[in-house]
Specification:
Order of helices and strands: EEEHEEEEEEE
Mean pLDDT: 94
CATH architecture: Beta Complex
Largest sheet: 7 strands, mixed
Strand content: 35-45%
CATH topology: Metal Binding Protein, Guanine Nucleotide Exchange Factor, Chain A
CATH class: Mainly Beta
Helix content: under 10%
Radius of gyration: 15 Å
Number of helices: 1
Length: 129
């Protein structure tokens, strides 16, 4: 499986299998990504192979680090000492996201309550008319 950043400077390959795909609803993920929740494909850190470009590391907490493209700052993956040896790859950085549906919601005690009604909201295929 392969992936890249927005500007295509960073390209990478995942040599092993995705272990699990998770939606994380913790406050840290919401704050660091500016989103309602984050979706990650969890893999072994040793299975990540950088093919091109450079990653910049950003220290989030004393245990968590975020790795982004050094050019466009697209998030590629996170590492957390609590889950040593694993990468939490941002689902959007992977090229085959449709083949990787989320399997579990984490930290639902801080999940935004309105997320449960997403299917009831009006939807536009192309964004704002």
């Amino acid at each position: 499986m392969q992936g890249s950043c927005h500007c295509q400077d960073v390209k990478f390959e995942l040599l092993g299998e995705v272990k699990k795909v998770v939606n994380c609803h913790c406050n840290l993920c919401r704050k660091m990504n500016g989103a309602s929740f984050s979706t990650y494909a969890v893999s072994l850190a040793n299975d990540f192979k950088l093919l091109s470009g450079q990653l910049k590391s950003i220290t989030l907490t004393d245990r968590a680090t975020k790795f982004v493209c050094s050019q466009c700052c697209s998030p590629i993956y996170n590492q957390n000492q609590r889950f040593n040896g694993l990468n939490m790859l941002y689902l959007g950085a992977l090229d085959q996201t449709e083949a990787l549906p989320a399997e579990v919601n984490l930290y639902t005690s801080t999940k935004l309550t309105w997320l449960d009604s997403l299917n009831e909201m009006p939807s536009l295929e192309q964004g704002v008319p």
